[in-house]
Amino acid sequence: MSAFPWQARVAASIVKKRLGDKRPAVAHVPLAFEGEALRYSIVGGAIEVELFREPCNEIGTTMLSELEIVARLLQEDRHEARALIFYSSVKRGFCAGADLRELYEGLIQKHETKVAGQLGAIKEKLEIASEVRTFIDRIHAVMDAIDTAPITIIGAIHGFCFGGGFELALTCDVLVADKSARFAFPELRLGLVPGFGGIPRLRRDLGNAVVRDLLLTGRSVNAKRANQLGLVSQVVARGEALKVARMVAQQAARFDPATTRAAKAFCKPFPREELEREKDLFIELLGSPVVEAALKKFVESDSVRPYLP
Amino acid sequence: MERAELNKKLIELAGKRFKQETTGLTATDDFFDKLGIDSLQAMELLTDLEDEFDVEIPDYELQGVTTFEGLSEVIERRL
């Protein structure tokens, strides 16, 4: 195994600069929020989080910063909501995953500022590992906060729910998917594994066989199949997921909050150790030249078919 | 279902999905070029096909498939 995990930790202590660390200075988390990637408000006792960043809600530093505000809202009791709904108003889908262009540009920027020689190469590697770890730690903190929130979290899914988007969906308690929804972990095509907590959460909810099938083939499954697997709670007609999610939220809100909190804690164990190992594995793999070559191909391709396996 | 019938059905479905006139489309046409779609839109068509024929088609079986005839072949394996 590579020494990346310890390298990353050493680097974290010596490299202060962070890749796109744009966290806004929010003193108090607002009860309604309008950002560049998402907006939320409290509607009928449920927090409704609308993702609206084109082309398909890619998770980069902007989306992350705003998801952090949602995570902070969940950690406060001030909102008095009994459920939260994630949905997307972007036509193509819920979320297509991590912002690969931003990731690639970050790596390229590092090459451009690289100091010559072997020491320069080591320093560059350490800096990349450190900055990626910072991002990964932040996104994991967000996903963990959603996963363990004491209220019922509902995902209303349509279209693409790939990679990091699938990982966000996996933090939800109940998924309502319309017939256009497709779920996939395409990360192996890039020489990576999911890095936002997806494997431990999918394993927790559905088991190893499903993880292997989706991860090792990169294939996508539709809403019906996801429902058969137990991932999706309800499959609804195209365009109806949010409406149905709201009904789920209303139903969840009828129960005693303390009981909901206790029930959720009991039936949704938090896979802490595995999440930590996933972070290390992701950062280790990201150091491989395979990843950079795959990202380059993806970002620089002008083909209409870059997503095909 | 006969291959020709299947091809016809696929062309109809694609026309409906992308709101395009299907007159003149043939089974050997490259649907990316003819319909002007990208790979993400091809995935939308895949979802329609799975729904219509009640089959599950792994994405990797569509690697290199660009014609309706090719799509028919993949679907036939599962009918």
Name of the CATH first level of chain B: Mainly Alpha
Strand content of chain B: under 5%
Classify the secondary structure makeup of chain B into a structural class. mainly alpha
Report the average pLDDT across residues of chain B.
Answer: 90
| Discrete helix count of chain A | 12
Describe the structure in your own words.
The complex is a heterodimer of chains A (309) and B (79). Chain A has 309 residues and is an alpha/beta fold. Chain A has 12 helices and 11 strands. Chain A has a 7-stranded mixed β-sheet, with helices on both faces. Chain B has 79 residues and is mainly alpha-helical. Chain B has a single domain, classed as Non-ribosomal Peptide Synthetase Peptidyl Carrier Protein, Chain A (Orthogonal Bundle). Chain B is built from 4 helices and no strands. In chain B, helix 1 crosses helix 3. The mean pLDDT of chain B is 90. Chains A and B meet through strand 10 of A and helix 3 of B.
Topology record:
The complex is a heterodimer of chains A (309) and B (79).
Chain A: H1 4-14, E1 33-34, E2 38-43, E3 46-51, H2 61-75, E4 83-88, E5 93-95, H3 100-112, H4 117-147, E6 152-157, E7 160-162, H5 164-169, E8 174-178, E9 182-184, H6 198-206, H7 208-217, E10 220-222, H8 223-229, E11 234-236, H9 241-252, H10 257-267, H11 272-286, H12 289-300
Parallel strand pairs in A: 3-4, 4-6, 5-7, 6-8, 7-9, 8-11
Antiparallel strand pairs in A: 1-2, 2-3, 9-10
Helix pairs in contact in A: 1-4, 2-4, 3-12, 4-11, 6-7
Chain B: H1 3-17, H2 31-35, H3 39-53, H4 68-76
